[in-house]
Amino acid sequence: SDFLEHRIEDLEKAALDTPIPGLRLIAGTLGHTGTAEATQEQRVELLARVRELSADLVILDLAAGMDRACIDFFLEADESVLVTTPEPTAVENAYSFLRAAFFRRLADAMRTSPVRDLVREAMNTRNDRGIRSPADLLEQIEQIDADECARFREMLEQFRPRLIVNQVRNAEEVKMGFSVRSVCRKYFGLEVDYVGYINYDDQVWRSIKERRPVVIAYPQSDSALYVRQIAKKMLR
Questions:
Q1: Model pTM?
Q2: What is the pLDDT of residue 37?
Q3: Would you state the torsion angle of the CA atoms of residues 101, 103, 109, 114, taken in this order, to the nearest 10 degrees?
Q4: Torsion sign (Cα): 68, 71, 75, 76
């Protein structure tokens, strides 16, 4: 908020040191920003400055939900990671978010395309054409313009979000990630990379109460083990 409201001009100055060597933190909001959501111009400016930060790796911790800023930041990231839990409502929200993010990316990429109106129409889940998924949209585009259909297929291949299932309690919930991946491939035409799961672990809430990362407070806990495994897999 200090950067967006021009109290500081250099985003580096908003980065605070932490007790962990090499790790700095930029808080999302400090105090009242005066607006409910950042404007498109503010988001573009913020992302440009984020890419200029003196850091090897920048992690954007996005809030839950499907507001425009959240989806924009998710799509801008070099690696997009979606975290969900095994509850039916959370999984349904994950599907909805992935669908919304994909159509947003497609609409931005095809602003000057002859099928842009069709893409915009497809973003409405109650459209009259019966388009319910990217796969349905692909069929419609193929009938209109073969070249745009090829572009569409390329977009599908490039959009490969990663998935993590958190607070897993049993083997059936572990399989939830594979089920999400299968459904996305079958009904959305999207390839989702299921990079792993994290077991439900009481040590997590203990570490939160202690205000210490679980991988440092309880390095031998199940949750810390799975976090390290996921991190290694993504770095590979």
A1: 0.85
A2: 65
A3: -170
A4: positive
